[in-house]
Amino acid sequence: MPVGKILELVGSSEKGWEEAAQVAIAEATKTIDGIRGLEVTDMTARVDSKTGKIQEYRVCIKLAFSVER
User: What is the pLDDT of residues 17-45, one digit of tens each?
Assistant: First the structure.
């Protein structure tokens, strides 16, 4: 019977939340094989107090992958 593991990660981007999630996945694939899916659990942003514009998008994800035996 296959076993899965869940890992929580945070990615960030200056372009958007989707890219922030891609950044987290790209880093994870450097050391984790068998990534099967993800769940976005939180989206936040850092805002410039002078301009009111978003400077950095942040996404917290739960990443699911298979555990090898």
Answer: 999 999 999 999 999 988 999 999 999 99
Single out the residue of 38, 5, 36, 6 nearest to residue 23, CA to CA: 38
Query: Quick check: 8 and 41 in contact, CB under 8 A?
Result: yes
pLDDT of residue 67: 86
- 50: tokens are 């002078």
Q: Which residues pair with 9 in a beta bridge?
A: 61
Q: Which residue has the tokens 């890992």?
A: 7
What letter does residue 15 receive in the DSSP assignment? S
Contact call for residues 66 and 39 (beta carbons, < 8 A)? no
The Cα 30–Cα 55 span in angstroms is 27
